[in-house]
Amino acid sequence: MNDVLERLRTESGQSPPYEELLAADPDALAASLTSAGLPLWARELAAYRLGLAGDRRAFEPLVLLLNHRDPPRCAAAAEALAVLGDPRTARAAAALATNTLRTAYALQPVRLLTALRAPESAPVLMATLARLLSPHDPYWRVALACVEGLGALADPRSREVLTRAQSHPRLAVAATAALRALG
After folding, report:
1. Which residues lie below 8 Å from residue 152, measured CB to CB, with a gap of 6+?
2. pTM of the model as a whole
3. How many Cβ atoms are within 10 Å of 113's Cβ, its own excluded?
4. pLDDT at 120 over 80
5. In this structure, are 80 and 92 located in the same domain?
6. Distance in angstroms (rounded) separating the CA atoms of residues 8 and 12
7. Does residue 98 sit in the same domain as residue 59?
8. Cα separation of 46 and 80, whole Å?
9. Is the keyword ATP-binding assigned to this protein (predicted)?
10. Mean of the per-residue pLDDT values for the chain?
C-alpha cells in the first residue's frame, strides 16, 4: 500500500488535492470518481482507497485500471480488487485475461484470478496458457503467471496443459513444480 501511495504522491507533485483525497471520507472519494477534470492519479487514489475499504463503488474504476497499460496501475488495481470482495471481480478478470487483443496487459488479471480462487480461475488460466504456448510467443511472462497460478490452484484438470508447458524453455521449471503440486 505504501508503494502505491508514494507513487501517487509523486505523480500528484505532492499537491494539496492529493492530501485532500488521502484524508477524504468514502462518500467524498466516490464523488471524486465521477468528477470532471480530475487527473488519473486522483481517480486511482480514490478507487484504490475505496477498494481497500471494501466499498463496491470502486469496482468499475478499478477494473478500468486493471486493464491500464501502466503495470504499477494494474498491480494496484488488482490488489484493491482482491480485497474488495465484489462477486463480479472474477468475471471481469477472466474477460481481461482472455482478451487476445490485450494479452500484453493480462499479467495482473491472471494473478488476480489466482488470488481469487474463483470457479472460473483454473479454466481461464488453462485456456490462456494453452493459447500462449507457441515457442515464439512474446507474452511468456503472462504464460508463466498462468503456470504459477495453476500450480497454486492445484486443479487436476490443468495436468495436460502443464505437461505441454514443460517443453517451453521459459516455463519448464515452473510447469514441473506445478505438476508436482497436483500430486
Report:
1. 114, 181
2. 0.93
3. 29
4. yes
5. no
6. 6
7. no
8. 11
9. no
10. 96
Q: Decide if 179 contacts 166 (C-beta within 8 A).
A: yes
- Whether 80 and 95 share a structural domain: no
Q: Measure Cα distances from 78 to 14, 41, 67, 100, 150 in Å.
A: 24, 16, 10, 19, 18
In b/e form, how buried is each residue of 57-85, taking b as 16+ CB within 10 angstroms? bbbebbbebbbbeeeebbbbbbbbbbbbe
How is residue 179 written as a grid cell? 505438476
Angle subtended at Cα 174 by Cα 106 and Cα 150, rounded to the nearest 5 degrees: 55
Across residues 18-28, what is the average pLDDT? Answer: 96
User: Nine-digit cell at 52?
Assistant: 481497500
**Residues 15, 77: one domain?**
yes
Q: Are 128 and 96 in contact (CB under 8 A)?
A: no
Work out whether the CA dihedral 157, 98, 128, 111 comes out positive or negative: negative
Share of the chain above pLDDT 70, in %: 100
The residue segments making up the domain with residue 127 are: 88-183
Same structural domain for residues 101 and 177?
A: yes
Query: E strand or H helix at 125, and its extent?
Result: helix 121-131
Q: What is the pLDDT of residues 122-158, one digit of tens each?
A: 999 999 999 999 878 999 999 999 999 999 999 999 9
